[in-house]
Amino acid sequence: MQNFLVRHRIKDKVLAVAVSGGADSLALVLQAQEQLVLYGYKIIALTVNHGLRPSAAKEAEYVAQVMQRFNIEHHILVWQGEKPDTGMEEAARQARYSLIKDWCDEHNIGVLLVAHHLRDQAETFLMRLQRGSGLQGLCSMREVSDFKGLKILRPLLRTNPEVLKDYLRSKNIKWVEDESNQNTKYLRNKIRKFLPIMSENTGITLERIDEATTNLQSADDFIESYVSALFGREIKQYGTDVFCINYGNYLQWHPEIKFRVLAKLCQKQYIPRADSVMMAIKALNTLPFGGLTLGGREIFTAYGKIWIVPELYSKRKSSRAEWKEFTQQNAQYKNIKIPHKARLALLAIKEEK
User: Fold this and answer.
1) How far apart are CA 210 and CA 122, in angstroms?
2) What's 144's DSSP letter?
3) Is the peptide bond prior to 288 cis by the omega test (within 30 degrees of 0)?
4) Number of CB atoms found within 10 A of residue 182's CB
């Protein structure tokens, strides 16, 4: 695990670990403690009591007992308030990460280890394949990702879950079995039951799927590096939230580049839905373009350029005097043709400071 941290240039010495009581997360936190404390790391286990099952509190207390046995600092975080009637899986996931993120922020911790493993990766790939995901979706999970500024590490992503169970058995440690994993109304559980059959009959093993996602991630990284190079070169940024692109240049971009640029520029907390981005691309490809909104952003054209600004709920007008005062304080805007909506966005950002 030390090699994993070095490879990803993780310098933090205090690491939080999400521990549910299942075999995967128990093995992760114990291996982290076993392998990293010698190098000066401090491991803190965090368990979320989601309250969705009668046994949830008991399971959290069981984790606390195991952590005490191995001298690992442990905290239980409780998901309070009403729970949604639909979309429970996603709501619970968001609540879990948000609770952990808030706790880590309060305690100045920037890194969280989670126990996603080889089978989780295969299940995620097949779920996204079933939904018709594009390249980015089929890349599935990364070893390092981000949740609102909290760095998420997955050191077990290429580890077979049976290896983790064997590790716990060697230490005579029991784990919690989540009964919801047997509920076949969830697509992930259906896929989990299907994976051994697929492997036996087709040779499409967990390892083969992992190879595929690794190759897809490599291709995705190349495209992302190309998109990043466009920022500053062909995508101009004014202030923190106003962007413009030469319309003629945009029309010559590959559809995948158009998709990624629009998705990035119109992202709030989440990237906009793929079908919404595709509709925006279709509209921009059709002249004359009349303007649209996407992901809380307004897209319009002026001076031969595509402009992307925060959606302006206030339709107030700005005076010439206001803009003159603004450009006196921000001389870089004096000789640039900036349309009225973009000016309003820049003035609004100034007022928020």
Assistant:
1) 7
2) E
3) yes
4) 11
**Residue range 215-249, pLDDT digits in tens:** 999 999 999 999 999 988 999 999 889 999 999 99
Q: Could you list the beta-strand ranges (E) of the chain.
A: 14-18, 42-49, 73-78, 111-113, 144-147, 150-153, 235-238, 242-246, 292-294, 297-302, 305-310
What's the pLDDT band for 321 if we cut at 50, 70, 90? confident
Amino acid at 187: L
Instruction: Give the CB-side neighbour count of residue 211, counting CA atoms within 13 A.
Output: 5
Dihedral over Cα of 213, 214, 216, 221: its sign: positive
Confidence of residue 275 (pLDDT cuts 50, 70, 90): confident
What is the C-alpha to C-alpha distance for residues 50 and 60, in angstroms, rounded to an integer?
Answer: 10
Q: What span, in angstroms and rounded, lies between the C-alpha atoms of 224 and 261?
A: 10
Whether this prediction's pTM lies above 0.90 is answered by: no
